[in-house]
Design brief:
The complex is a heterodimer of chains A (338) and B (674). Chain A has 338 residues and is α/β, with parallel strands linked by helices. Chain A folds into 3 domains: 6-100 and 150-196, Rossmann fold, CATH 3.40.50.700; 109-148, no CATH class; 204-317, no CATH class. Chain A has helices at 17-23, 28-35, 49-54, 72-84, 92-97, 109-119, 171-187, 253-256, 274-284, 296-307, 313-317, and strands spanning 6-11, 37-40, 60-66, 69-71, 85-91, 134-137, 140-143, 147-152, 162-164, 195-196. The mean pLDDT of chain A is 92. With 674 residues, chain B is α/β, with parallel strands linked by helices. Chain B is 27% helix and 23% strand. Chain B is globular. In chain B, 48% of the residues are buried. Classes of the chains: A alpha/beta (338), B alpha/beta (674). At the A-B interface, helix 9 of A face helix 16 of B.
């Protein structure tokens, strides 16, 4: 290999969308190729784990690690890539805060496996065969990664230098970060301080062109139930939009096309728990009359009625941030550990 | 390892805390286990709030160079100020002191000593973790507006207004009725001295009306209150009088010429008549009449205008086009003296009020025996001519009765004795008082009772069961029969009388809850305004700058009402003299760079301190209006609003401290999911 800086990109528990987003920087990918040597990138190039194991420590200059830590393999790879990389980037929502895989922290490992291998209508598994970490066959012993009880974010397993949020991160933001790294590597400019990069420090609303007024929400609608006014804040119209509690940087893409922000860039800096913040914010603007107008019982019913118009609140408010939230997981039947 | 040097002080509170929490153990534990968190001194002491206790803290601050103090004692509500001041005396910013409530939240609510001790430890760990994140704060100084709003022009309000105005400060006196005077103006005599209510009240009314420092706003109601102590902005609705106050001379020709007679349910309690343009009574202040649009022929049919035609002023004082006016006034303090409503005795059907003609309420009787009343003071039956030969006076009507009001209205015994005396004096009739207990506490009251006893008034101890006109025995025909168990002789009695007077309970105003909400003060479930402390702070409320006086706070007699009015005025004057107010620096503020302009918080502030700048699309909080309640801080989804002393760091640190140890008091070294 040449003496160009080494780039790696790995997927742990993820959907592959982050790789697509990275390739979606279009012709800039040629610049990336011109600057970097690809050291490990299972999506686009054939490398084996033993290749990585063979690298000296710190051999990889930048490793973009996407995907959550769901299995023992994910965790092993996180440790391996941490050891072999100078800069480890938690790339995308799964690595950053658990994302969709971490919603299974709301239930047990057994329930998740049951859904996948047994209860799903398209599954036919009469012998109730589940993947086993260790299986004896005539040819010898087979090993499968252990499926963890709790999904973790990358930074809950290894030290992370940078985080690029998003599900997936926006290509222009990816390119901006890669450019910064390239400049640093080629011109000796110092790298930015560690933390979240490729995003704004203010909530999505700042980038949203919709007109905003004082909010009073009487009920929520699902997107198919109403045609939203194109110019007014979606939340005001009763469409769940997490833009108020979500870090900007995407350019408010979803709200601009009439779809409420789903919150994929995670919490705004300084907020510990995006979902909890969303709940308090929504609770604050629910239209249940003036204080003292309704008696306690009636008030509770009104509040219940409004909250009942939000299907799957946990999945809505913690869609991306479950693993990284203060809750991290629910305690089910005494299970509370990974 | 914290860089701060923390002192922990665990109070025994006599045995209040020490009897349930092992305070010595807690102190020893804090010093050992919380050393990593910065604790360098931990002590327990019998009474931390005593001078010696405070000196303990002060000495430690100097000797050990403490930079933070945690006091585990009663509640911040009680002694936060004490310990903050102690810290301040030793040169430590008072806001670097944190109180942990191990009395209200631990010893008073738990019985298991071991668990309570462990809970106290956890709470102290939370306090220590929190206090290291405290910031030194300086109070906010705001000027106090010297003007005062007095709501309610009864004797309490008049007294308060005069006290303040006489001291040279402006007062706005707002009264819902066309005249000030309140209930007292309706009374004839006052107990126990029997001096004429009008003779002692009207001079005060005139004073209030003519006082250069008093702006009288009668026929007016407070619509809205904004702001906070020192700087309230009050919106008053001045209802249309249809009489121009700037030109009316109060000559009364309009009243004379008005052809419409209306039964006066209000001032005359339904016993007398007034006109459609009227003054409630001749000495009303202000003198300007008001047109009752419901009964005025012009307002009903568009014709008449007799008042306007005969009005001698130039320009004409009658203005049918007048509209309600909204006036904004700026005041520094507010006194609420909104008075009471009388219990409606129709709610006790067996006493026959409203059904049996000669059953009267106490207020009706006041009008009946009032020299300026509808009968010129003649005590007669409902027919207007017959003098009663026997009168029954029933105490506790709607008071001390679980079906209506549990409380004692306080004034009814004396009022009933006064009625008994007046009936006896003016008619010579036989008088029976039906009472449960005779309550004649306070100066000269029991002497009055003795006097009435000597006058030959009959007293029957027992709750009256029924007042009926159904005669059963000879001598009962045409009479009202009072059925009662005389508990002294243990027998049922039937006492026939010509007239029955019901001493009805004093009740909170029907709209007391709304008023309390408007002014942001607390109201009991019954509807009496709640004072800051029932014994030691009887006229202040939990809302700074708002005071209560008179029956709005609870039933009371005239002397107590006047005393409260004066007391409230004294408190207000004290505030005004300070000229400047040091507000607690616990305030919310917006970090502009973090505000996305989502406007979630915009409608939430109970003090209207939030302003949205459309041009920059950011929200701002007015620090003078902000009371630090934290509503917006919790609501802000961006953490762009921070509350001093309640920052996310402080709260999270406190929670972490609380969870640092398990129930046995052992350090949980590993977090559950780490």
């Amino acid at each position: 290999m040449s003496d160009k800086p080494k780039l790696a990109m790995y997927w742990a528990s993820s959907c592959g969308g982050c790789e697509i987003a990275t390739l979606n920087i279009h012709e800039h990918i040629l610049d990336v190729d011109a600057v970097f040597d690809i050291a490990f990138f299972p999506c686009i190039a054939d490398f084996k784990i033993k290749d990585v194991q063979g690298y000296p420590d710190g051999y990889i200059d930048v490793c973009l690690f996407n995907g959550a830590i769901r299995t023992s393999e994910n965790e092993e790879m996180a440790h391996l890539l941490r050891q072999k990389s100078k800069v480890l980037v938690a790339f995308g929502s799964c690595a950053y805060e658990g994302c969709i895989p971490a919603l299974s922290n709301l239930t047990t490992r057994e329930a998740t496996l049951n859904t996948v291998y047994l209860d799903n209508p398209t599954i036919d598994n009469p012998n109730r065969i589940f993947p086993q970490p260790v299986t004896e066959v005539p040819e010898g012993t087979l090993f499968l990664p252990v499926f963890y009880h709790t999904v973790k974010s990358l930074d809950q397993v290894v030290k992370v230098d940078y985080t690029i949020p998003g599900c997936p991160p926006e290509p222009h933001q990816i390119w901006a970060v890669l450019q910064a790294v390239v400049t640093a590597l080629t011109q000796g400019v110092p790298l930015p301080p560690s933390g979240v990069v490729g995003a704004s420090n203010v909530a999505v609303c700042e980038e949203c062109p919709r007109q905003r007024n004082v909010k009073k929400i009487k009920r929520f609608y699902r997107p198919y139930e109403v045609v939203p006014d194109p110019d007014i804040c979606l939340l005001e119209q009763g469409l769940m939009c997490l833009g108020i509690a979500t870090r900007g940087g995407c350019g408010a893409l979803c709200p601009q096309v009439g779809m409420g922000c789903r919150g994929c860039y995670g919490a705004v800096p300084g907020v510990e728990d995006q979902g909890a913040k969303m709940v308090t914010a929504i609770a604050s603007v629910m239209d249940v009359g003036k204080p003292g107008e309704l008696d306690e019982v009636k008030l509770e019913q009104e509040i219940e009625a409004i909250f009942d118009t939000i299907p799957d609140p946990a999945g809505t408010f913690y869609r991306f941030s479950m693993a990284h939230s203060i809750l991290r997981r629910t305690r089910v039947n005494g299970y509370d550990r990974g | 390892m914290s860089e701060e040097r923390v002192g922990v002080y665990v109070c025994h509170c006599g045995s209040n805390i020490a009897s349930v929490v092992n305070v010595e153990d807690v102190a020893v534990w804090a010093k050992e286990e919380l050393a990593d968190q910065g604790v360098v001194v931990a002590r327990d002491y019998k009474f931390m709030c005593s001078s010696l206790g405070q000196e303990l803290i002060q000495d430690d601050i100097k000797e050990h160079g403490l930079t933070r103090v945690v006091v585990a004692a009663c509640s911040p509500h009680l002694h936060e100020k004490t310990f903050r001041t102690a810290c301040n005396r030793a040169g430590l910013n008072p806001f670097l002191c944190e109180m942990v409530s191990v009395r209200e939240q631990v010893s008073w609510v738990h019985t298991d000593k071991e668990l309570a001790t462990n809970k106290a430890k956890a709470m102290i760990a939370g306090g220590v973790e929190r206090v290291v994140h405290h910031q030194p704060l300086e109070p906010l100084h705001v000027p106090i507006n010297p003007a005062t709003l007095v709501v309610g022009g009864g004797i309490a309000g008049i007294q308060a207004a005069l006290e303040i105005a006489d001291s040279g400060f402006p007062v706005y006196l707002v009264e819902r009725e066309p005249t000030i005077g309140g209930h007292m103006a309706q009374f004839d005599k006052t107990f126990p001295t029997l001096d004429c209510a009008a003779c002692i009240l009207t001079p005060k009314m005139v004073d209030a009306g003519a006082h250069p420092n008093i702006t009288l706003l009668t026929w007016s109601e407070v619509e809205r209150v904004d702001g906070f102590v020192g700087n309230f902005t009050v919106t008053v609705r001045k209802k249309a009088r249809y009489v121009r106050e700037d030109v009316c001379t109060g000559c009364g020709i309009c009243i004379e010429k008005c052809p419409v007679k209306v039964l006066d349910q209000n001032f005359e309690a339904g016993l007398g008549y007034r006109k459609a343009v009227y003054r409630p009574f001749p000495q009303a202040v202000p003198k300007y009449p008001v047109i009752d649009t419901e009964n005025c022929t012009y307002f009903k049919r568009g014709k008449c205008k007799a008042c306007q035609i005969f009005c001698p002023t130039q320009p004409n004082s009658i203005d049918f086009e007048q509209k309600d006016q909204f006036i904004q006034i700026q005041v520094g303090n507010i006194i609420l003296a909104t008075g009471y409503d009388l219990f409606d005795p129709r709610r006790i059907p067996q006493y026959g009020y409203g059904r049996l003609a000669n059953v009267f309420t106490s207020l009706e009787f006041e009008r009946l025996c009032n020299a300026a009343g509808p009968t010129n003071g003649d005590i007669v039956l409902r027919d207007g001519v017959t003098k009663p030969k026997s009168v029954g006076i029933i105490h506790c009507v709607g008071s001390r009765d679980r079906r209506y009001n549990n409380y004692c209205s306080g004034i009814c015994c004396m009022q009933s004795l006064k009625f008994a005396h007046l009936v006896k004096e003016r008619t010579g009739a036989d008088v029976y008082n039906f009472y449960i207990d005779m309550r004649t506490a306070y100066k000269d009251y029991d002497e009055f009772y003795q006097k009435v006893l000597e006058e030959g008034v009959h007293f029957v101890r027992g709750r009256v069961a029924e007042v009926t006109d159904a005669a059963r025995k000879p001598g009962e025909e045409g009479k009202l029969i009072i059925q009662v168990e005389d508990t002294f002789i243990g027998k049922q009695r039937r006492i026939p009388v010509d007239m029955v007077i019901l001493s009805a309970a004093l009740q909170p105003r029907a709209d007391a809850n709304e008023v309390a909400q408007k002014f942001g003060i607390a109201c009991s479930t019954k509807g009496w305004f709640i004072e800051k402390h029932p014994k030691l702070d009887p006229v202040a409320t939990m809302t700074e700058g708002i005071y209560v006086a008179g029956c709005a706070q609870g039933p009371k007699d005239i002397p107590s009402t006047v005393a409260q009015g004066a007391a409230a005025a004294a408190r207000v004057l004290g505030r005004i003299q300070m000229q400047e107010l040091a507000l607690e620096p616990i305030r919310a503020s917006v970090i502009e760079e973090k505000c996305s302009g989502c406007r979630i918080c915009n409608d939430m502030c109970p003090f209207n301190a939030i302003i949205f700048h459309e041009d920059r699309m950011v929200t701002e909080i007015n620090p003078a209006l902000c009371q630090g309640c934290g509503t917006c801080v919790a609501a802000c989804p961006s953490n762009a609003i921070t509350g001093t002393q309640f920052s996310t760091e402080q709260i999270m640190a406190q929670i972490e401290g609380l969870l640092m140890f398990n129930v046995e008091g052992e350090l949980i070294r590993e977090m559950a999911y780490a």
